[in-house]
Structures are given as structure tokens and as C-alpha cells.
Amino acid sequence: MNRMILLRVVGICIAVVLLLHAGLGFFGDLMRPNFRASDLFLDEIPPDKVDLAASGVPAAFSFDGDLLANYAAAKAAGIFHHPSADANGRATESKAAQDAVVAALKISPIRPALWLTLGTLKAQLGEPATPAVKMSYLAGAVPVGVAFSRVQTVTSSAAATDEEVKLLAQSDIRSVLANRSRYEPLLVAAYVRATPQGKSLLLEATQVTDPKFNEILRRY
Fold it and tell me: What tens digit of pLDDT does each residue of 153-167 get?
């Protein structure tokens, strides 16, 4: 009799856990931000603060890679588009966004744009960004808009000193130059803001791919 009672209790506990899991998953699907990491670099409008706060509740308990990735991207969007006015506030917000990105990547690491998000956040704070940027290359292909943003992050940070990243960045620069009519002024602006190593990377890559554009860059 005691064994039967124990089995019933265990069965009820399992049923409750499964019910809670299903309910949390359903709630997470309803509250998941319709905002991906690639949208961060494609001028898409991020969710407002109310929707972001609501999606943070299921994200805190979820193991859904899409939910966590979208929430992390939306949280990072606030840093990129509406940063805090003071340095301490920006650092605090960036750390919170980085924590959200890392939590998502632990569950679902094959997300190149999300790795780039992490690298960009770190670069903005002057932290080592090279490992995250390198992972963004190794995790898969990205749209040309994301590739351009990665060129910006690489050329404006210490990532431009890493030989492997420099080699990988060549493909991004070629992709962007294939759309030169759209990205030429943006590439020039990226060159102006680049570190000395970043400028060298852009000059070396364009010398081979597009000598005429290389001549334009050398005027700045």
C-alpha cells in the first residue's frame, strides 16, 4: 500500500512538472520578442521596454534557444540604439545584455549574429572582443548587412590585430564590396573610425579586391 501511495505521489509530481514546463513553453512562445540578433545590424525596430520586460519573465526560466536569443538581442538593442547617458549606466546595461547573450549562447551556440552582438558589446566597453568575434565567423554565414557590422567591429577594436580574424574578415569585405554602391560611404566612414590596424586591414583587402576603392580610402 505504501509503495502504491509513493508511486502515485511520484506520478503526480511528474505530471505537475510536465504541466509547468508545457505552460512555461506556451507562455514563452506568446511573449517571445519578434526580434533576432541579425535584426540588430539591419536597422530593424526593437521591441519597446514594456514588451522586453514581459519577455524577460519566461526567459529567466526557459531553455528555449530561440526565446533566449531573441530576448538577448532585444536587450542588446537598447544598448545600441538608446544607451544610457552616463558611463556607469552604460557599463551596467551592457553587462546585463552580455549576461543575457551568454545565457542564450550556452543553450544555442550556433548563432553567428549573436556572437557578433557579444563581441560588439565587449568592444564598446574596451573589453577583449576577439574570441566572440572569431566565434561569429566560425558559427556560420551572415547577411551582408551583418557582415558590414562585423567589419566595423573588427576594424575598430583589437580584433584587427588577430591574424585569424584578419583572414576571416577578408570574406566580409569582399561581400560588402560586392554591394559597393550601397556600402561605399559606410565603408569610408568605417575606415575613418578604424584603428591603425583596422585601416591596414581595409587597405590590404581592398587593394586586391577593388583597387579603385582602395585609392578612395587612401585619400582619408
Answer: 999 999 999 999 999
